[in-house]
Amino acid sequence: MNRPRLVEVRENILKQNDLLARSLRTRFHEAGVLVVSFVSSPGSGKTTMLEKILARVGEKVRVAALVGDLATENDAARLMRTAPQTKQITTGTVCHLDAHMVESALEDWELNKVDVLFIENVGNLVCPSSYDLGEDLRFVLLSATEGEDKPLKYPTIFNTADAAIITKMDLAGAAEFDLELAHRNIQSVRPGMRVFEVSAKTGKGIDELSSFIQSQRLVSQSATAV
Amino acid sequence: MHELSIAMSILDRVLEESRARGDARVEAVYLRIGPLSGVDVEALRFAFEVACEESQLSGCRLEITEVPISLECPSCRSEKQAVSIQQLCCSDCGTPSPEIVHGRELELRAVELVE
Fold this sequence. Notes:
The complex is a heterodimer of chains A (226) and B (115). Chain A has a single domain, classed as P-loop containing nucleotide triphosphate hydrolases (Rossmann fold, 3-Layer(aba) Sandwich). In chain A, 37% of the residues lie in helices and 21% in strands. Chain A has helices at residues 15-30, 46-57, 74-80, 99-105, 150-153, 155-160, 179-189, 206-225, and strands at 5-12, 34-39, 63-69, 86-90, 116-120, 137-143, 163-167, 194-197. In chain A, α2 packs across α8. The radius of gyration of chain A is 18 Å and the shape is globular. Chain B has a domain at 3-68 and 102-114: hypothetical protein PF0899 fold, CATH 3.30.2320.50. Chain B has 115 residues and is of the alpha+beta class. In chain B, the strands form two sheets. A four-stranded antiparallel sheet of chain B has the order 5-4-3-6, with no helix packed on it. A three-stranded mixed sheet of chain B has the order 2-1-7, covered by helices on one side. The chains are: A alpha/beta (226), B alpha+beta (115). Chain A binds chain B through residues 1-14, 16, 94-96, 126-127, 129-130, 152, 155-157, 159-160, 187-193, and chain B through 1-2, 5-6, 9-10, 13, 17, 21, 27-28, 30-31, 35-39, 85-89, 96-98, 100, 106-115.
């Protein structure tokens, strides 16, 4: 009998997803679309915040949204009021979005009619961290009602994001949320991370966040031009 | 729990290697996994076993090397281990750094086959 032989592979296990995400990113850049995604645990206020952001950013540029959930089209119905070009991705039992789901959802869209595409991931702080969706900018959300130690419990998702948003700031007092500790924990798992404080209810921070997203559009366009 | 879909991807890729060598028997699968890959090693071991059932990989060894997190330390100007996944600081001088060198690995390193 032959002896065992070691065959080197040295390949990323999620290579297929990474390759697809890379080709999506090229397509988005060529069409002049900035892609912004949001990840968080369920119930952290992604959809409510996104409604406000869509309305504000949508005053200046053409916005669209993809929203992922295991089931129901409720979130898409909500977002459609502010962004008519919205599509729900229902994943069934899958706990995250992947590049293939994004590609399929965009099949009948004319990307050159969109300036900023928002992607709301399935509410989950674990699995989405492994999957690149081809986005330019990934935000991780942490609500004031969840507790300050979320970054320490889920460091990986904070590490795959480009910036963090603390939501439900209007409830911070009632929840005895230690804002300073939350900032410290975020900086511990991701040194230098930019953090926004937002309340969709009072409107706090929505302008600042919207302006930041707009400014990234210019950054991404000049990067493509070069 | 996305480890099952990751286990299925590994299975597919390993079967490809086996088929390319005349359906060689798979003795072992070698992975390198970092804590920042988003994959839980124990969950993956379990998922891999389930994924391999009734395939020609059934009973093969799964050898996982866990890759520690290392950072480019701006003070030491070299690659250093991080204090922990919760604290991305140089373990020598304590300087925080977001420049991750290792720790995100989710790699199929090698396959041991008997032709």
